[in-house]
Amino acid sequence: MDRLSQGITEHRKAIVAVFLAIAAVCAFFAAAIAKNDNMVDYLPKDSESTVALALMAREFSGDVPNARVMVSDVELMEAVAFKAQLKALPGVSAVLWLDDVINLKQPLEMADDKMVREYYRDGAALYSVTIDKGFEQQAVDAIYALEDGKHVAVTGDAANAAYMESVGNKESVGAILILVPLILLILFLTTTSWLEPVLYMGTIGIAIVMNMGLTALTGEISFVTLAVSPILQLAVSLDYSIFLLHSFKRERKTGEDAGNAMRRAMKASFSSIAASAATTMFGFLALLFMRFRIGPDMGLNLVKGILFSYISVMVFLPALTLCCYKLLDKTRHKRFIPDISGLSRGLLKVRIPALIIVLIVVVPSILAQNRNDFIYGSGTPDKKTRYGQDTEEINARFGQALSMVVLVPRGDAARERALCDALANVENVSSVMAYVTTVGTEIPVEFMEDAIVENFYSPDYARIILTCDTQEEGDEAFALVERVREITGAYYDESYSCGQSANLYDMKNVVLSDNKIVSLLAIVAIGLTLLVTFKSLSIPLILLAVIESAIWINLAIPYFTGTSLSYIGFLVIHTVQLGATIDYAILFTQGYLRARQTMDKRAAINTASSRNLLSVIVSAVTLSGAGFCLYWRSTNTIVAAMGALLCRGTLLSFLMVVGVLPALLMLFDKVISKTTMNAGKHTNA
After folding, report:
1. What's the whole-number mean pLDDT along residues 374-395?
2. pLDDT for 433-484, tens place per residue?
3. Contacts of residue 375, Cβ cutoff 8 Å, sequence gap at least 6
């Protein structure tokens, strides 16, 4: 550290120039970062849905129908012409409509009325459309461009992906534009220089740009990661720069010149910043062990972000500060926040009642958090958006409908027909479309047009398309997936199924198995970090109990309020809240242990609280503000749910640290003394 700090102080201008140049290059690449809006792509490669999708992509030209398009006020032949227009659009690989299942040359009165009404009723035509991955927004925009006096509505996974692509970046930018002024306001109120907040934000901003630029060069990231990662990186790592500059200001008060003061500050704050970064990083690293790859996607990006923030704070910030410390002095002002020692004393007075309340509610919270009603997909679309309005309009006229595809080996038409008949009798299956149901078993494929045959047969597999009238997820939808797979398995030894409900069913099974592993890994990793940091057997247990209790209460609130919870948010928030807010407990405990060397435990807890309360408040308000911005600005259920959990969880962790941790430190004071290395001699308890 001595050699590093010496080099930084001597080459400050060169370091600032290099960082700014790297940031400029990274900003250029970050502007073109690739985003994936399809959560199914993050399922394990061995899940049935993933295997089925890969198999179908290899064997068939068309994928699972992923959009429903409705055009109103059209005659039958107009609807046929509109289908041709749809098929000609870029990104549209297949369109299924009424003329694929019945002969339109015959009067509609002679056809199966149920079949007709699935595709054409009250002058409106409904098409099942397959849009290629990556072309969702382009294709949906082109579909809307076909309106030309006819009202067109679009719903389905592709429409949802197109909507998220169009608003995702805007919402992320909108959240940042709210969060940054909020953080600056907090910093201006709690610091003593107008320039100081700019140094903080500039340092972490450089780290965020570098992280995003590297991500753009290494591949695409999920829309969840893109929306959450920059905001979390800013909120979580801002403390590092605050620690360093506060240490620098303390060293300058001793009369040291700026260079020596910075070297001493870097050395003095190194352990605190390293411990804070390590606990946060290990919490995020646990996400890498999720089989549902949205976890590794987010975890890797956040870990890189923490590393870039740490490097930026320990290298760029000292150099930048030394380049403009005179301006820092010239822009000093009085602290606007009054002395909060009274608030600190007030919080300490309620520590025993707070501890009792937590002990009462924590056990029910542990039980309740696992009984939440979970949402595995995008949830109900926002009715304020066109996508939400179109979805409601199509469902109101034609009813809820989802496509599920079943793939079975080709070659046994009689068995295929028997399977189709069995599937048609399953509750919530409204139609079954296959070669044997549309053309029949009597006509050999050699006598049919290739365009018709290729819809249902590849050289090795037969494709059966089910239309189901369930929601995309829930008990009814998942029971249907199980029933379809059970029936198909009774007829064929080899079979595959996919579709939105099947995809979410597989997602549910994957994330259920991920939960315990990820949570345990995060606890163990952070616990070991605390063990090394404090050289204590008891302190890691106390600090983990405090933050884990806040997490349990946070995750139990949706159960008690009767609201559904996004499972991705539930799964990720454990590691994020633990890794991000354990720092509050570390800071508070370090202050207590230092004060306890020369004071009794009551005076030590008062000193630790008064000295660290403001820092914890600033950090907690920043992180909870980040969560609130995500919740407020995002129309995506997953991102909004993560924001709400982060906002509420941060505030709960803050209350646990300032309200309950003091009681535990005093209660276990003797245990801490006996189980902590180099604890020193305590004064009278």
Report:
1. 80
2. 888 887 777 777 776 776 677 778 888 999 998 988 888 888 899 999 999 9
3. 473, 564, 565, 566, 567, 637, 641
The gap from C-alpha 609 to its chain's centroid, in whole angstroms, comes to: 34
Q: Residue 105 corresponds to which amino acid?
A: K
Query: Any bridge partners for residue 128, and if so which?
Result: 68, 96
Residue 101, classed as helix, strand or coil, is: coil
* Residue 453, CB-side half-sphere exposure with 13 Å CA sphere: 13
Name the token pair of 277. Answer: 């970064």
Residue 241 CA to residue 238 CA, distance in Å, equals 6
What pLDDT is recorded for position 650? 92
CA distance 19 to 559: 47
Place of tokens 């979410």: 504
Backbone dihedral angles phi then psi of residue 625, each to the nearest 5 degrees = -65, -40
Rounded to an integer, what distance in angstroms lies between the CA atom of residue 325 and that of residue 575?
38
Res. 382: pLDDT tops 80? no
* 352 burial type by CB count under 10 A (0-12 exposed, 13-18 middle, 19+ buried): middle
- Tokens (6 digits) for 472: 């995309």
What is the pTM (predicted TM-score) of this model? 0.80
Q: Which of 256, 305, 318, 299 is nearest to 277 (CA)?
A: 305
DSSP secondary structure of 235-255:
HHHHHHHHHHHHHHHHHHTTT
Residue indicated by tokens 């930018």? 173
Segment (H or E) for 127: strand 124-131
10 Å CB burial of residue 435 (0-12, 13-18, 19+) is buried
pLDDT at 40: 78
For 403, phi then psi, to 5°, come to -100, 140
3-class DSSP state of 430: strand
When pLDDT is cut at 50, 70 and 90, the band that residue 542 belongs to is very high
465 Cβ contact list (under 8 Å, min separation 6): 65, 96, 128, 403, 404, 405, 406, 432, 433, 434
Going by DSSP bridges, is the β-strand pair 429-433/461-468 parallel, antiparallel, or unpaired? antiparallel
Of the chain, the percentage scoring pLDDT greater than 90 comes to 28
pLDDT tens digits, residue range 3-56? 888 888 888 999 999 999 999 999 999 888 888 877 778 888 888 888 888 888
Instruction: Label residue 243 exposed, middle or buried (CB < 10 Å: 0-12, 13-18, 19+).
Output: buried
Which are the contacts of 601, defined by CB distance < 8 A and separation ≥ 6?
Answer: 665, 666, 669, 682, 685
Kindly state the average pLDDT of the residues 477-499: 93
Distances (CA, A) of 220 to 22, 32, 36, 159: 21, 10, 7, 20
Q: For residue 574, give the nearest of 549, 599, 605, 603 by alpha carbon.
A: 549
Amino acid identity of 494? E
DSSP code string of 296-348? HHHHHHHHHHHHHHHHIIIIIHHHHHHHSHHHHHHTB---SSPP-HHHHHHHH
